[in-house]
């Protein structure tokens, strides 16, 4: 399946690094200590092959448990957890025009966590703008969109075109933590307090090298048809998604591989599951 986009981010923007934010390492370290003690929700567990965790820092009401994306009058307000992180709060108010902010969250990928290739905002009528600011990460943490795998490094600010197929993975030994903010506005310029770089695409220095898929790997992956069933279905998808970060398999091709494996397995219930998942993650929900 090709990387179809039902809607476009405002201004037809594409994923790119917007700026480098000079982080105060001492103040960030103090906030990170608090983050490591916070209780997190697992609201998006169906989007990951391990326990993806998140907590709301700003939302419509300031009530911690409110986590559904959507529009509402006015800007967001800090939650209980947001108020516990004074430096992160200063980053939010210093980098962004908060009258357009709808949600600010911490998104935590624990060691070994890989996200299902997916597109966001499919359930919404309006366009949203998503910005990531990595707070703790490493070269063992990856993001991807389409056929590009790349690093979002600590202190960089990124626009992510979440309407296109994307995924992420952490093969690090501690939690990867990103600040993610969602806005409703006509353009990135309306969201940011300072002008951002307008160079299109992912910078070459952030792109992670990958190798061609070896013939033996291809045969081995297709050979999972002899094992796949509904009980281990997500395990097989996780193997394919992880391989995307190592070899030249495009993110949304994971579903094509799953269909080939399911068809070869002779299990119609597995093939039906792949079709439903592809619809849910990439087309509509």
Keyphrases for this structure?
285 residues; Proline Oxidase, Chain: A,  Domain 2; 3-stranded antiparallel β-sheet; 20% strand; disordered N terminus
Structure report:
Helices cover 27% and strands 20% of the residues. The protein is an alpha+beta fold and 285 residues long. The strands form two sheets. The chain has a seven-stranded antiparallel beta sheet. A hairpin with a 2-residue loop joins strand 6 (141-145) and strand 7. The model is unreliable at 1-12 (pLDDT under 50).
Radius of gyration, CA atoms, in whole angstroms:
19 Å
The chain-level structural class is alpha+beta
Tell me about the biggest sheet?
Answer: 7 strands, antiparallel
Question: Per CATH, which architecture of the largest domain?
Answer: Sandwich
Biggest β-sheet: strands ordered side by side in the sheet: 1-8-5-10-4-2-3
Task: Determine the strand fraction and express it as a percent band.
Answer: 15-25%
Number of discrete helical segments:
8
Shape: globular
CATH class of the largest domain: Mainly Beta
Distance between the termini: 17 Å
Summarize the structure.
This protein has 285 residues and is an alpha+beta fold. The chain has helices at 25-35, 80-83, 86-95, 188-191, 215-222, 233-244, 253-265, 268-283, and strands at residues 16-20, 53-59, 77-78, 101-109, 129-136, 141-145, 148-150, 156-160, 166-170, 176-183. A hairpin with a 2-residue loop joins β6 and β7.
